[in-house]
Amino acid sequence: MANGLRSLSESQLEQCRLAFKFLDEGRSGVLQVETSLGHFARLAGFCPSEQQLRKLMEKLENRKIHSLNFDKALDVVCEELLPLGCHSMDMFDSIQEALKLLDASHLD
Length: 108
What we know:
With 108 residues, the protein is mainly α. The protein has a single domain (13-102), classed as Recoverin, domain 1 (Orthogonal Bundle), CATH 1.10.238. The chain is 65% helix and 4% strand. The chain has a two-stranded antiparallel sheet with strand order 1-2. Helix 2 runs antiparallel to helix 3, helix 2 (10-23) crosses helix 6 and helix 3 (33-43) crosses helix 4 (50-62). The longest helix has 15 residues, at 92-106.
């Protein structure tokens, strides 16, 4: 089991799943670090500054990591952003509801 899965509540995990699914438009099962990591982090309820996000992306680039599956994306944001205090529940409910609506509209 991924470390990130142990760090979050079931509701938080559901929000992460919805965010990943929403951003994985091609249903390939991976997100590109350069174009989607910031969106994933924020939709999942994390609130990194632009500088924190840039440092994280550079760190992944240096490791030659260009795409992330769900478990790895979750591990990355939990391991790198949670210790920085970058998780906010302020907009959790509204973001989760919006993602559910968007996901439902993708099924139409």
